[in-house]
Amino acid sequence: MIGALFLGGIAVWLAGAAACLALWREPALARRVGCAAALAGAALEGAGSAAAIFGGGAATIGLPFGNPLFTCAVRLDPLSAFFNLTLAVLAAAVSVYSFGYLRHMEGRRNLGAFGFFFNLLLASLTLVFTAANAFFFLVAWESMALASFCLIGFEHEKARARRAGVLFLIMSHAGTGLLLIAFLLLTSASGSTDFASFHLLASRMAPLEQGAIFLLFLFGFGVKAGLVPVHIWLPEAHAASPSNVSALMSGIVIKTGIYGMARVFFDFYGPPPLWMGTTVLALGVASALLGVLYALMEHDLKRLLAYHSIENIGIILMGFGAALLFRSLGQTNLAALALIAGLYHTFNHATFKGLLFLGAGSVVEATGTRNMERMGGLIRRMPVTAVCFLVGAVAISGLPPLNGFVSEWLTYQALLAGFGTTSSMTRLVFPIAGSLLALTAALAAACFVKAFAIPFLALPRSEEAAEAREAPAEMRAGMGMLAVGCVVLGLGAAWFVRVFDSITEQTLGIRSSAALVTARGFALSPGTPHGGTISPFGIALLFLIAGVAFAWPLALRWKRRSVRGPAWDCGLPGLTADNEYTATAFSKPLRMIFSALYRPRREIQAEYEVSPYYPSAIRFESEIEPAFEKRIYAPLRERILAGANRMRAIQAGSIHAYLAYIFIALVLLLLFGVRE
Amino acid sequence: MMARLIEALAQLALLVALAPLVTGVIRTLKARLQTRRGPGILQPYRNLRKLFGKGMVIPETASWIFGATPWVVFVSTVLAGLMIPMVAAEAPLGLFGGALAVIYLLGLGRFFLALGGLDSGSSFGGLGSSREMTISALAEPAMMLAIFTVAIGAGSTGMTEIAGAAIGQTWRFLAPAQMFAFAALALVLIAETGRIPVDNPATHLELTMIHEAMILEYSGPYLALLEWAASVKQLVLMTLLINCFWPVGLQPTWFNFGALSGIGWLVTKLLLLACAIVLIETTNAKMRLFRVPELLAVAFTLGALALVSTFLF
């Protein structure tokens, strides 16, 4: 049953891809077929994954296109099924959204190609999450990367989109290279490419080898996840791709890196040495903090959201890092708590970031720009989009009672519990990480005040914003689905944590949701004795009661006494959009406070005729230094290009020389590469 | 269940009724210390009554966010207040959330307040929102370290457990970790409630104002709600501070005559804290905005010291 649903989903996606390719001359039809196939496939995969999670056991399914050398088997164990469920939920909402979003591209772009790559991406994602051997995993991994590349560069007439696509491809391949080495090392130790043979294998290896494999996996998967410092492709790619693709990229494609880490850390490794957990925790903190700090400086709406993906990956990795540390320390209950926090945040991030990117897509579509400084006042022109975006903004800021709050709360609880249970100096790591998580969350709230208020509130800052039109019904429905998801995952947290039971049983050997739910399912607790509790549902209920009993009747009464009047304009002749606070101005205090990181540069040139106090025109330019690009990647690129130049010397173009190289390589391989 | 409901309602009544009085007391004490007479401690109530009776002007440029903001701010602040123990050692809504929920509910109020400030389109609102979000973001890690320190002592983030851990240990607040955490939280309290030297609640000078700038466009009942919420927030944070570190006088339940002495203790402790705040306000000048991060860095360091001392002692 599970297998049939799973294979059916993949078959529908592949069939959709093929149909889109065949229909490329019929854009309207290709759009409908492509989106319908994506939606139907997501429904099947979602049902199959949910059944697999609650069924508990693992289902191994052989795919019909294997060959004797490499079996193409997939295995739907709880961990895989969870990520597959995340994929299905997000893909369903994005497909509904795409019905409307792609309509304006009809006739201008090749929607057949879009549908092909879109469905192919979904199918390859599901295979990445479920592949049961290393070879098949890498094949799925690469087809996912190629499909993503084609979708990122879909608007290929723009130089930025092409550049973003190529950057993604280079980084992605560098990451795959690391993964390949790591898998080869594991394979040579186990003698098989089967994931089942890697189970707890890494921990039995020599410490040096074990550490090397860990780092290879961490950075290999980290590239896809957007881990600092290998994140630089992410803001470019998320911003340049069409918005429905951005939602998928940020919501689920980068989660393949998280899935890979979960698989390696909790399946291939047993209890790891302490330094591994500390490294993951530290990199998580760095990603979270740097992600949000760079996001604050963006006024390109989609780049801002992209940097927040880096931040949230950091928060997820804080959960994973804590789980690794607890595992090393033998605290299985707490490891389960931390793992649940990380995985919960993974699911939550897929919903709220997907929602925000879809909302940004509607806004960008309506105003024709990604620059927040040219938006404004959209809440009146696009009320539904505004409400959905607000829900996403509150959720991602970790504010109660929505889902971001629940997973951040669980992360705090895990970090806090870490202090009490250990005795070494490592325990100081936990609360410091917790306080930096608080800083991250508060900065994220500041950033989303900006990201919501500047585009949606006050007066329109451009003609286009003043004449923006609300998104069509399909797009609103897609956003609405994810907004409801954010609410349900927040309010229904005590119900949803049961999903993780089978995962923690598979990875850590315990089921802990019963300990996490107290007061007959009304509240969540960290599972420690006397631990604090929260009840997002109760908080929401009290808000509802207060709203219905007091706010609504009183507001109606006061409304009769209220008049509309102009806002205070300092005595100037009326308030215009020029008086408004801009996104740049909003984040100026933080730009000054963190100037050591940003190294801001600004240039002001005023032209005046009589006195400098009465300028006739001002040119203002401000930018921050892209530290990683400038200090790490630019020198690296120089090195690589210089090395390639030197390599040119041995590529003489003479066939004799090449034959000699082949001969030498063969001799070296025979001498050193072949073992008895 | 029923008892818990009555407790919650009692604390709710105490919270909203007492909050303006605390504001009034602080203002009057401050005036006396500066050899002014001051308006009397009941003036905040009169202000509220006056404002609730007035009509209001809503900016033409504002959306429904502007009207929703006062409600979200007020309700979230009051909910946060019900999650801390005031008179009885048990927080009435302890099941709904502990210290973290208190911090994040206040964060929810602040989020909407900042949106409300930006909604009118006037520069002042944006200026206030930008500064408020910046300062609170920098205050957050220090606050969390201090909360962590007390939570570690109690083994829980529940406010009932945190206060309970300190009950019966009268001199516990003299332990180094507790003192450092108290100092850190006190600095955060000053920043979060917008008092000198971070913000001046008595000024409308555009270069310096933070909180007042955000609510500049509000008038009538909405302004009353926001000012009331600001008072409640101040009371909540003050109570959090005193009952986390010095829970003397907390009663086992609301339902005995001890509850009266509990209220007495609460008022006494609040008065002491108010005196300290007034002393700080009167002897310090308001800081330049870009000196505030230094103050909060001090708070963060104190919080870190508190943690390390938990580790050492």
Write a structural description.
The complex is a heterodimer of chains A (676) and B (313). By secondary structure, chain A is mostly helical. Chain A has four domains: 1-132; 155-270; 274-527, no CATH class; 627-673. Chain A is 70% helix and 5% strand. Chain A has a two-stranded antiparallel sheet. Chain A has a two-stranded antiparallel sheet with strand order 3-4. Chain A has a two-stranded antiparallel sheet with strand order 6-7. In chain A, strand 3 (517-518) and strand 4 (523-524) form a beta hairpin. In chain A, helix 3 packs parallel to helix 14 (332-367), helix 11 (255-268) packs parallel to helix 13 and helix 14 packs antiparallel against helix 17. Chain B has one domain. In chain B, 69% of the residues lie in helices and 1% in strands. In chain B, helix 1 crosses helix 9 (220-245) and helix 5 runs parallel beside helix 11 (292-312). Chain B is globular. At the A-B interface, helix 17, helix 18, helix 24, strand 5 and helix 26 of A face strand 1, helix 3, helix 4, helix 5 and helix 9 of B.
Describe the secondary-structure layout:
The complex is a heterodimer of chains A (676) and B (313).
Chain A: H1 2-22, H2 27-55, E1 59-62, E2 73-76, H3 78-101, H4 111-130, H5 134-152, H6 159-190, H7 195-198, H8 207-225, H9 233-240, H10 243-253, H11 255-268, H12 274-296, H13 301-328, H14 332-367, H15 378-381, H16 383-396, H17 403-421, H18 429-456, H19 463-466, H20 473-491, H21 493-496, H22 501-508, H23 513-516, E3 517-518, E4 523-524, H24 536-560, E5 562-565, H25 583-586, H26 588-593, H27 595-598, E6 601-608, E7 615-623, H28 627-647, H29 655-673
Antiparallel strand pairs in A: 1-2, 3-4, 6-7
Helix pairs in contact in A: 1-2, 1-4, 2-3, 2-4, 3-4, 3-10, 3-14, 3-20, 4-5, 5-6, 5-10, 6-8, 6-9, 8-11, 9-10, 9-13, 10-14, 11-13, 12-13, 12-18, 13-14, 13-17, 13-18, 14-16, 14-17, 14-20, 16-18, 16-20, 17-18, 17-20
Chain B: H1 2-33, H2 43-53, E1 56-59, H3 64-82, H4 99-119, H5 123-154, H6 159-166, H7 176-192, H8 211-214, H9 220-245, H10 258-283, H11 292-312
Helix pairs in contact in B: 1-9, 1-10, 2-9, 3-4, 3-9, 4-5, 5-6, 5-7, 5-11, 7-9, 7-11, 9-10
